């Protein structure tokens, strides 16, 4: 069946090959580049694969080679509101957000998909490395490039209108195919950093938005070990940048309290948690389990997978890990899997250690 497909073209190799595959499959494909920066030069420059003037030009050239119509959509206002401002406010609240996940949720598969459907398109095609089978998301065959974690926030309806042509191949195969197709982006470097932080200095970016506000760094007993210039510069599990000196420099960030601007540190073993409560669950791969469901959970992008039991309670996701995990930060996503199939996703709100809770009780 021939579909009207809107191919989101970032200017990178993945989205170019995805658009080419969709066109080769016989679909009626139109390319669109999302202009996400109010001032493109204020975002990343150079061939980084996201949010640059060069990327728009690369996307247009790829569309010309493929032979499809091409447009640029100005999404700067939506991107600033739903991704950049959300990023800043989450850090201000002591959480650690994932802006790529939020961009997929709010921009590529909400604002863009809504506009595409309104214009009569049947699907949005992207270059994400993920598979779709039976209406559910599955991990890419390329484990190193798998992006199911940052797409797990999508609803079933959004997945139904999504097309992911690259999930069945490796990144090396994508680059080789781009070269065979004559696409100039075949050797273009991937983008790894946050696209709207031009120099990669997240702490500096947050200081510019939130200001410098000195506060204490304390241990678990409340003893002051040092000071910081803004709690928003830290994330749970962080060790570098504490500048405590001496033996205490082997401490890790355990928690961030924005109300009193305090960062609490301690030994690595104090990071261990085995119970997680997460908010705003999205169940794309199964119905919300009322009873504990044996599955696995991933707690950060490209992080390890943990065996667990999970269920929904009073509208929130509860995850109990078989073995404790460290460095679990509020604001990150907890993504549940059955093998390589995404079951659901939610935003981490609370973490705890059951053994400690039982001892305290």
What features would you highlight for this structure?
alpha/beta, SH3 type barrels, Elongation Factor Tu (Ef-tu), domain 3, six-stranded antiparallel barrel, five-stranded parallel β-sheet, 9 helices, 27% helix, ATP binding, tRNA processing
Question: Could you state the order of secondary-structure elements as H and E?
Answer: EHEHEHHEEEHHEHHEEEEEEEEEEH
Beta fraction:
25-35%
Shape: globular
Unreliable spans? 44-49
Secondary-structure content class: alpha/beta
The CATH superfamily of the largest domain is identified as HUPs
**What proportion of the residues is helical, as a percent range?**
25-40%
Count of β-strands: 17
Radius of gyration (Å) = 22 Å
**Looking at CATH, which topology of the largest domain would you report?**
Rossmann fold
Number of domains: 3
**DSSP helix count?**
9
- Average pLDDT, rounded to a whole number, is 90
User: Briefly, what CATH class of the largest domain?
Assistant: Alpha Beta
Report the biggest beta sheet as strand number plus sense, adding barrel if it closes.
6 strands, antiparallel, barrel
Identify the CATH architecture of the largest domain: 3-Layer(aba) Sandwich
Q: Assembly type of the shown chains? A: single chain
Cα-to-Cα separation, first versus last residue: 61 Å
What is the spatial order of strands in the main beta sheet? 12-15-14-13-16-17
Structure description:
The protein has 361 residues and is α/β, with parallel strands linked by helices. The protein folds into 3 domains: 184 residues, 3-Layer(aba) Sandwich (Rossmann fold); 58 residues, SH3 type barrels (Roll), CATH 2.30.30; 89 residues, Beta Barrel (Elongation Factor Tu (Ef-tu), domain 3), CATH 2.40.30. It contains 9 helices and 17 strands. The strands form 4 sheets. The protein has a 6-stranded antiparallel beta barrel. The chain has a 5-stranded parallel sheet with strand order 3-2-1-4-7, sandwiched between helices. A 4-stranded mixed sheet has the order 9-8-11-10, with no helix packed on it. A hairpin with a 5-residue loop joins strand 8 and strand 9. Helix 1 runs parallel beside helix 2, helix 1 packs across helix 7 and helix 3 runs antiparallel to helix 4. The longest helix is centred in the first third of the chain and has 20 residues. It starts with a strand and ends with a helix. About 2% of the residues have low confidence. Pfam families: tRNA_Me_trans (PF03054), tRNA_Me_trans_C (PF20258), tRNA_Me_trans_M (PF20259).
